[in-house]
Write a structure and sequence with these properties.
By secondary structure, this protein is an alpha+beta fold. The protein contains four helices and eleven strands, in the order E-E-H-E-E-E-H-H-E-E-E-E-E-E-H. Helices cover 23% and strands 41% of the residues. A hairpin with a 2-residue loop joins strand 6 and strand 7. Helix 3 crosses helix 4 (153-172).
Length: 174
Amino acid sequence: MAGIPVGVRQSGSLRPAARRACGGAGADGLFIEPPKRSHMETVTVARDVSASPERVRDAISDVESFMLAAGFDEVDVEGDALRIANHVGLFEIELDLVVEDRADAALAYHQRDGIFREMETVYTVEETADGTHVEATTEYALAAKIVGPVFDGTVVKRQRRKELNAQFDFLDAL
């Protein structure tokens, strides 16, 4: 039994170690790694704006206005739940997001339900001599069912850059 890789069927059932949800040593002494994260694509946009970090953080913390500045067709905020909808080419995209409370970010959220297998966006704000440096990074993995010649990672990257730049234009106007 020690020669069979974890997760490989033996006699019609998964080995007990393969059924464990988290990492650790199995009863047979083999170490089980936790599930690996999906391959993630990354989009990062950064800009220096003349507004103070406090003004930028205040503008970002008005999540509904900040998301509308990205050009989304619909934005609904209810507590830490955020729902956005947007038309991208032939597709209407809807995402249910959860806003995270993170000390290292002016705003952070991840997808609860939508087109991505995983998606997280983090906005950071740093004071500079002339104002504020703002950076946004979105990491995502597309769900296999939607990847194809019409809607792929290239379309997502292009659209996400457009949205983030629109938000930074909004911050530039403060």
